[in-house]
Structures are given as structure tokens and as C-alpha cells.
Protein 1
Amino acid sequence: RKEVEQDPGPFNVPEGATVAFNCTYSNSASQSFFWYRQDCRKEPKLLMSVYSSGNEDGRFTAQLNRASQYISLLIRDSKLSDSATYLCVVNTGNTGKLIFGQGTTLQVKP
Amino acid sequence: NAGVTQTPKFRVLKTGQSMTLLCAQDMNHEYMYWYRQDPGMGLRLIHYSVGEGTTAKGEVPDGYNVSRLKKQNFLLGLESAAPSQTSVYFCASSQGPGLFTGELFFGEGSRLTVL
């Protein structure tokens, strides 16, 4: 079983829709969590960190549930430019060892 | 504004050949990483380093060796390439302990094909 698991999708949604992605992790000692975005044939880039109390950055909301060991990302009012692969990333200790999920592909259509 | 630079960007090898991928960063980062990315598999951590002279195994270390002789460089070696090592390789760096934010700075990737 992979340490970090995501539904690969693809998620096909119309512009303006709200879409949510989930991610589960297996190591209960994991300490920090992130969402990255990767455009086709490009390198991944940090989208946002995930804090225990949940956090929001514009149209993006990240949540962490330590008891159930999952992380979520909610995108409101989807734009065409949100089309990308979203990667869940877990720091499995305080060591800088970052493990990526396989990514969830989002396609936003006009 | 170089950031993280990987060389080469493309390479075709025959089975059994060896090669080294070079990653260089100019941000004085402590942590450096090598990932590989295959279709449907996401990024998988090969090896990483938490400082000059240190290396550690990631999720898929077999068939690869690494060295971090200088803080700014992280080398990934394939001693005897296999077709299963055909992939896109990403190097990344980040701040070290006390400054670690989870933000990895990636190179543009190196596309390796093993025939």
C-alpha cells in the first residue's frame, strides 16, 4: 500500500463548479501536509500548506483530519486555468522526507 | 535566477550503460531530493539528502546511487541502466530544519529513455 493515496480521476467539471479531492496517508506520525499543482509536462509547484485547523487561500480550502488520516482540497468557482494535476504531499517525519500521492487530474470545461 | 538546474534534460541510453544526472541549486538549501515520475504513478522519492555529505533512501532506491559531496550539488547515478528506469527525473531542493516550509523548488526535469 502506498504511503499517500489519491483518486487519480480525472475529474471533469464545468466552469464555476465546486470540486473536492481527498487524499489518505498511512503513517500516523506524519507531521506536515501540502497540496502541489502540476501542469502538463511541467514541474510541480506548491499550491498551499494544510494546517490542522484548516486554511483557505482565495477559492482554495484545505482541510486535515488527523484521526482519519486524510487531507482534502476544495476548489470553488472552478476556472479553466485550474485544469492541472493536484498532488497531495506528506512529510512523514520531521526529516524533510516528502512523499507524493499519485495526483488527481482536474479538467475544467467551458 | 537559476534556482535548480538539472543536466542533461534528455538522454537515451542502452540497457547496461551507466550515466549520472547532475542537480545544482544556488539557493543555499540544505535538503535535496531526486524523484522519478511515471504515468499514473505520481512522483516517487528515489533518494534524498538533508545536508552535505549525507544521503538517505526514499521509496524506490534500488538501481540508483547518489552523492552530495558539495552542498549545492546532488548527483544521481545509474550504474547499469534498465528499461524500467525510463522515466522523467525531477530534482528538488528545500530549506533545512528550522526553516522548512514544505516548499520544494524543482528543476525542469530530465527525460531518460533506456532502450
Protein 2
Amino acid sequence: QAVLTQPSSLSASPGASASLTCTLRSGINVDTYKIYWYQQKPGSPPQFLLKYKSDSDKQQGSGVPSRFSGSKDASANAGILLISGLQSEDEADYYCTIWHSGGVVFGGGTKLTVL
Amino acid sequence: QVQLQESGPGLVKPSQTLSLTCAVSGDSISSASYYWTWIRQPAGKGLEWIGRISGTGSTNYSPSFQSRVTISVDASKNQFSLELTSVTAADTAVYYCARDYWGLEYWGQGALVTVSS
């Protein structure tokens, strides 16, 4: 079982909100981890969006709009990237990461379609 | 403004060593605050962390690459490098370098490396 699992795709309408999940493998407690989120558009390197551990321990990337926010769902053992007020430019691949067992682990990524 | 730029051969033969360099500008690679990182992405696939080196030279490698990867720093040239030995076609990917502080905040544009005879 992968350390981090992300749904492969998600669709949402312009103006709506999208909740992207990053589920940690059973036995790895989301409460103890900082979750990092990245956005990647075709042909470009990823861009750091934010990191989230708790409401008192979080960091927004430079220039990243506040409509991108992080949270956790402890019951699902998952980190969440919430994008509100979806715009067409938000259509991209989104990756989560954690630091685990001495290295960075990437989730498989979620392709967000805005239509 | 911090900028990173990957460079190196775009074609490597199977069983040989892949070597890439990342030139850093706008920051000192010797800073103890940062980690200098290599990540790769095969075409149409997700991101894979290879490893990192600190400004003081300490390294962390992914278990997937541990046996055949070396990351090093050349402070005199303000750059760091990746060596990946015994490559196969599965190592064909875009290789990115990045600076890790409280996240992978700065990335290079990526270098495509193809492994083929």
C-alpha cells in the first residue's frame, strides 16, 4: 500500500470549491505530519502551494492566493487541499508530500479539471 | 530572486552513469538553512523524490535510489550535482532540482534525460 494515496482525478465547476484529499497509509498518523501541496501545470515545474500541520502551524507559498488552504480530516487520516472559487487556471495536477522514513514521499497526484 | 538551472547530457546509454548539475543563483548553496534536492518525473507520470543535500554536505537519499545515487555540492561554483549509476530505460525522465526550506519552494525548469543505446 502506498504511503500517500490521492484520487487520480477530480472535476469541479468554475466558482465552486474543490477538496483534494491525500490519505496516509494505515499506521501513519496524519496528526503528526506536515502535509505539503504542489500544483503542476503541463510543461512546467511544480509550484509550492502550502504546507499544513495544524491551524497554528501552516505556511502559504509566496504569492499563493488565500483561496488555497489546507486542513486535515483525522477520521479519514487524510490531508486536504481546499480550493475555493475555482478558476479555469486552477486546472492542473496537484501533489501532496510528507517527510517519512528519512525522505520525501510524493502522492501519486490528482488531476483537477475545471469545467 | 532564487533561480535554479539544470544542465547535463540529454542522452545516456544503458548501464552508464547519468550526471546532472544544478546551478543556483540568487542564494548561497552553502547556507545551513536549505536542502538542495533532486526530483524526477517520467513522461505522463508522477513526481519521485531522489534525494537531497544540505549546505553543510549532509545527504538523504530515497531508498529506491540509495544504492546507486550520489548528490554532491560544489560551493565554489554554487552548484550541486546528481549522479545516478547503472541506468536503464526506466530512468528516462525529466529531472528537476529544487531548494527545500519549508517546502520545495524554488524549482528549476527541468532537464529531460533519455536512456537509450
